[in-house]
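Aim 2 progress update. The chain analyzed this quarter is reproduced below.
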Amino acid sequence: MDGWLKDLKGYWYARFRRDSKAWALNAGVVVDNGKPIPGNEAALLKSRRSMGYEDAVALWFQLKEYGWTATEPAW
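Predicted structure tokens:
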């Protein structure tokens, strides 16, 4: 299951998803940062990071402290 956050302006989104290929190596979460494009266009991805579960949880809460809010999937 994916987790999604959006920034205060609703411009940038962060998608947290499990990386089943790297789960055993403790790098089991991929975080995509980007913004949705109107219409049927693919999302504009700014960055993609693989990280351990604990680091991903820390990043989630850090973004929440900066005012990011949970949201529905954007792409």
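The chain has a mean pLDDT of 91. Strands lie at 3-6, 13-18, 29-35, 44-51, 69-70. These observations will guide the mutagenesis experiments scheduled for the next reporting period.
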